[in-house]
Amino acid sequence: SKERAGVEYISAVKQVLMGLEEETGSSYAYLSGDASFQSQVANKQAKIDKDFEALVTTDLKLTKILDTGNRVNDLRSKWQEIKSRGSNVKPAENLDMHTRLIASSLSLILHVADTSTLILDPEIESYYMMITITTTIPSLVNSMAEARALGTATVKSRSVTSEDKLKLAVLANKIKSAY
Q: What is the DSSP string of 145-162?
């Protein structure tokens, strides 16, 4: 039952995580000067808000079993800060805020995988599958989202800074090493 609780909880976190990863690129492009992304950002933010509501409901139900404490409230608070700052931040700062929030979401997934004993499966195949699902894939998707955000801004500005080239090279290496 603890493992089932872990799967349910991780599924709720992943919904938020996927929305954040999609919204990262759109908001980066919007803040980089592409106004065509404004409605897309608003739509993605509304979906993330709904996903957070579902996560809060799941957290209330399972927090005692999985010892999640205030982690969801912390995530939601960081998300509200990103939204409240809106267009008053530079693209790089927005990307950094998103990256930290996504990292905190990944940390929550790992915590739940540990406390639900999902990663302690005695069957080696199941163990590797859980590591892939809870660690490798979310990290890979995060790196890809960050690369997409930088790529979108690069296409919009039609120029690449040396800092962006370095970031993209690091991200490309992370993505390649994930498989």
A: HHHHHHHHHHHHHT---H
pLDDT per residue of the chain (179 residues) written in tens, 0 to 9: 898 999 999 999 999 999 998 898 889 889 988 888 899 999 999 999 999 999 999 999 999 999 999 999 999 999 999 999 988 999 889 988 998 999 899 999 989 999 998 777 677 777 777 777 777 777 787 788 788 877 877 776 777 788 888 888 888 888 888 76
Residue-wise burial string across 141-170, b where 16 or more C-beta atoms lie within 10 A, e elsewhere: bbbbbbbbbbbbbbebeeeeeeebeebbee
Give the whole-angstrom CA distance, residue 22 versus residue 19. 5
Using alpha carbons, select from 104, 15, 111, 21 the residue that is nearest to residue 66: 111
C-alpha dist (Å) from residue 118 to 1, 18, 109, 113? 11, 21, 11, 5
Q: Is 32 strand, coil or helix?
A: coil
User: Shortest CA distance to 56 belongs to which of 44, 78, 71, 41?
Assistant: 71
Q: How far apart are CA 68 and CA 156, in angstroms?
A: 40
State how far the Cα of 27 lies from the Cα of 134, in Å rounded to an integer: 26
Cβ–Cβ under 8 Å, residues 83 and 45:
yes
